Amino acid sequence: MKEKILACLNRWPGARKRFVASEIHSPVNGIFLHSFRELEDIGFIQHITIHDPANMEFYDKWYLTDVGYRAIMNVD
Questions:
Q1: What are the Cα distances from residue 36, in Å, to 15, 52, 56, 66?
Q2: Domains along the chain?
Q3: Which of 9, 30, 44, 59 is least surrounded, with the fewest CB atoms within 10 Å of its CB?
C-alpha cells in the first residue's frame, strides 16, 4: 500500500488523504492511516495544513519529499 500512496502523491501532489484512498481503491481505515503515518515518520511524505475559516475548512495537503521522490525513482 505504501508504494501505491507514494505513486499517487507523485502523480497528484497536494492531494488529500481521502483522494489518495479513492485513487488506490482503499478504504480510509487503520491500515491506510498507519501507512501514511509510517511514510511521514521516515520522511517520504509531508503535509501542509490548510485552514480556511471563510469556508470553515481545515485539512492537510500531502506531498512527496525529496527523499520520497528519490525512493520512487529507485523503484521504477
A1: 13, 23, 25, 16
A2: 2-75 (1.10.10.10)
A3: 30
